[in-house]
Amino acid sequence: MERTNHRSRAAASSPRFNLVFGFACRCPAVEQPNCIFATQRGLSIAERYRWARSLSDAELERLYQAHHDCFLRQYAARLIPTRSA
Fold it and tell me: What is the DSSP string of 5-74?
């Protein structure tokens, strides 16, 4: 039987785990060149899952918030009309 450490079990049960793992697979908005998940998207699904499981609750929350902030910036850019010169 495979043994998992406490940190892995905690990360998998975090409310942010599924979201962060999903963001590591695909961006629900427009992927930006400086995306914090770009490196993970180059990994296999199994490697992405192991990476996400290795994160602490605080790391999961930080990554979720970074994605959320990026998404809001993209959304705001679409809503605010630009002025023509």
Answer: -HHHHHHHHSTTHHHHHHHHH--SSPPPTT-TTHHHHTS-HHHHHHHHHTS-HHHHHHHHHHHHHHHHHH
